[in-house]
Specification:
Layout: H1 6-9, E1 10-12, E2 21-26, E3 29-38, H2 45-62, E4 66-76, H3 82-98, E5 102-110, E6 115-124, E7 140-143, H4 149-157, H5 163-174, H6 178-186, E8 191-194, H7 199-211, E9 214-217, H8 228-233, H9 239-248, H10 259-269, E10 278-282, H11 287-298, E11 303-309, E12 316-318
Parallel strand pairs: 4-5, 9-12
Antiparallel strand pairs: 1-2, 2-3, 3-6, 4-6, 7-10, 7-11, 8-10, 9-11
Helix pairs in contact: 2-3, 4-5, 6-11
Length: 321
């Protein structure tokens, strides 16, 4: 049905914590809009630019949409010189080009603290939007990238991990979620979100609350970068994780876990991610297609981490509760 009013053209806003806004133009075409930027998580300007761009593009991919045009958002101390700005922007441009989209300008400001990101315009058939809401009891939950980028970044800042040890996480943050999005679309996913600043627990909670469902998670199945468990247990965690943990205690059931085990698990699940993977909910019947399509594009398997269930909306339980 054609949208008949300005209000009805806004198919998705912020009400269900979806990854991007969706505005309907015609029966067959909607635009998907997002914006994201942050301070550096790595020292290399090119890698910072590529990570920030991949993170912003991920919002479009999580909706099942195709990115078309992006605008740069750059804040940089002018004393750093144009070469640093050029490397950041080149990293962003390369990520956007790989996504099949175009950089069409942007905006820069002089700022003591560097920041970079994108405003992204994408398109989709409004009937094919993959939302936060839509997960159904019995759905399988898959995660397409390991967790722990926040912990790795925190460890790098205090030399608790080597650059070589952090390399897998950096490469993961620079990787687009394009392949994961294509696999999701090929397998009739019911719901999807990307795992970023609210951590795995926060983004799963938003999906479950919007879907009026709960979930049972196999913590041992969560994919982690090397050393992340040990670093988290040693409280090498970003400051943001503690505020996420405080909020998550209201929806992550402790069950029979002792205080130490619950805290250690929460340290992982509440680690704020940068350019994390897609969290996908789909039927058990469609799961083999998703696995095959994802593996064909990436040469690795997505991690099956639990199931959607009936229960108190938004609640996360552990399978060994």
């Amino acid at each position: 049905m054609r949208a008949t009013s300005e209000e009805s053209r806004l198919l998705l806003g912020f009400e269900t914590s979806d990854d991007a806004a969706v505005w309907q133009l015609t029966d067959d075409l909607a635009v998907v809009l997002t914006v994201d930027f942050f301070t550096p998580v790595v020292d290399d300007p090119y890698e910072f630019g590529r990570i920030a761009a991949a993170n912003a593009l991920s919002d479009i991919f999580a909706m099942g949409a195709t990115p078309q045009v992006a605008l740069n958002l750059l804040a940089l101390d002018s004393s750093l010189g144009s070469s640093v700005a050029a490397r950041i922007l080149q990293g962003g441009a390369d990520a956007v080009s790989e996504a099949g989209a175009t950089i069409a300008g942007g905006h820069t400001i002089d700022d003591d603290e560097p920041k970079y990101g994108l405003s992204v315009f994408g398109t989709i058939d409004p009937r094919l939007i993959v939302k936060n809401a839509g997960a159904k009891p019995g759905d399988c939950l898959y995660l397409t990238k390991p967790l722990g980028t926040g912990i790795i970044s925190a460890a790098l800042k205090i030399d608790a991990i080597s650059n070589e040890g952090a390399r897998p996480a950096i490469e993961s943050m620079m990787e687009l979620n394009k392949a994961a999005s294509e696999a999701m679309l090929a397998s009739n996913a019911h719901a999807c979100t990307d795992v970023t600043g609210f951590g795995f627990a926060g983004h799963l909670h938003e999906m479950l609350a919007a879907s009026k469902t709960s979930a049972v998670i196999d913590f041992s199945a969560l994919p982690l970068f090397d050393e992340v468990w040990e670093l988290s247990c040693a409280y090498c965690r970003p400051n943001r994780s503690f505020s996420i943990m405080d909020e998550a205690e209201s929806y992550v059931a402790k069950g029979r876990l002792d205080d130490a085990e619950y805290d250690n698990r929460m340290g992982i699940m509440c680690d704020p991610q940068t350019s994390g993977g897609l969290l996908v909910a789909l039927s058990e019947a469609d799961a083999p297609t998703f696995i095959d399509e994802f593996e064909r594009r990436t040469q690795r398997k997505p991690a099956y981490i639990g199931k959607v269930s009936e229960g108190d909306p938004g609640t996360i339980n552990f399978s060994d509760r």
